[in-house]
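Researcher: Good morning. I'm working through a list of sequences from a screen, and I'd like to move beyond sequence-only analysis. For each chain I'm collecting a predicted structure so we can compare shapes side by side. This is the next one on the list. No need for commentary yet; just the structure.
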Amino acid sequence: MRDTEYALEGSVFVAGALIQWLRDELGIIQNASETEYMARSVPDTGGVTIVPAFTGLGAPYWKPDARGAIYGLTRGTTRSHIARAALEAIAYQIADLSCAMAADAGKPLATLNVDGGASANDFLMQFQADLLGCDLRRPQNTETTSLGAAYLAGLATGFWSNTDELLALRESDDVFSRRMDATRVDVLLAGWHDAVRRTI
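Model: Good morning. Structure tokens for this chain:
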């Protein structure tokens, strides 16, 4: 008899769609990969915070009627500040969700495995690791949703006998670890949470 395993699931309503919005609606980028260069071209967001509640806010807020907002715009705000604020907004939402899950699970997050299109952005991955204070592991194959389904099917049919065999198949990962001072992280998260409160 196999052990039963459970997974926590949370919803961030707008993540990659925020970058699409920069491209398709605002026209400040031509493709998603530009955001990494733009984010690195400025030392910070210049005080800009984006709360991408285009379709409400998901976990842990569950405010479907919330609407998006951009705070801190000045005459000196550039496209790069907005692009960086957009990437940071994705990471802030994941940080909120991860904290809620850690509280539900009763133990802190040790490692975050990432995949999908946004995980190709090294700036975003490093900022996420900075916020969470844990390692992020990105596989060489970042499109792992279908791979996961294949692994589950293989386990169910007996092609693989256990998950240890699957771990052996994993290619070497890129690892991102916290570089930012914890005090700075606290300041950034406080600013994010203030913007969320104002939006709600």
